[in-house]
Predict the structure.
Amino acid sequence: MGVKLDVIDLEHTINLVNGEPLHLLKNISMSIEAGEHIAIVGASGSGKSTLLSLLAGLETLQKGKISYHKNLEVLSGVTGVSGFIFQHFHLLPELNALQNVALPLMLRGESTAQQRALEKLKLVNLEAQAKQPVTKLSGGEQQRVAIARALCNEPQILFADEPTGNLDHKTAEQVFDLMLHGAKVSGTTMVVVTHDLNLASKLDKTYKLENGELKL
Ligand SMILES: Nc1ncnc2c1ncn2[C@@H]1O[C@H](COP(=O)(O)OP(=O)(O)OP(=O)(O)O)[C@@H](O)[C@H]1O
């Protein structure tokens, strides 16, 4: 089962180049249930990526509290149980698809890394391309490799920042559906930042970030 996440009164301020503070996020409170899939939408520059990085523990909290729970246990953080998918794939160009997916497991010394990586490549319909260098794959295929890699660690919560923003409309929908399917199969909680309201509507809830406030 996935991770449950509670956010209480989160605030975030950035300093603009002219020295003025900008209150990017104001008193954000939300709960994301275990296994729930939510979308965060909003205008460019509204703070979606910043909020996602804070939720994923990739950026330091300035004010407020985020707590993570698995079953009835409170976790000290999510770094070990989370996956992250970026808009620009972030694959290692010198490796093939299978090696990209297996690498995080191999670095942890997992003896079944290759086998588990191949299973996840099957899940995103890329078994036949496993030995292809990723530079020879299409954009949609590269993003499916990134999804397989993120799922390979069996994450309890998955964060995705515009995961299909770099793809054409049809490919974006196919890749998004595969990502959602992968998360559903493993009961993974998922938080997705997207501009695409059609894709957002496939998830359980859509939050809109506007003027620093998050609304359903
Ligand atoms: N570390 C930082 N220092 C200064 N400004 C920052 C920093 N991080 C983000 N910003 C600014 O904060 C604002 C929000 O950025 P963010 O990337 O979170 O928005 P976004 O809603 O994800 O935008 P987009 O949809 O265009 O990706 C932007 O104006 C950005 O320039």
Remarks:
- The chain has six helices and ten strands.
- Helices lie at 48-55, 97-107, 113-123, 139-152, 169-186, 197-200.
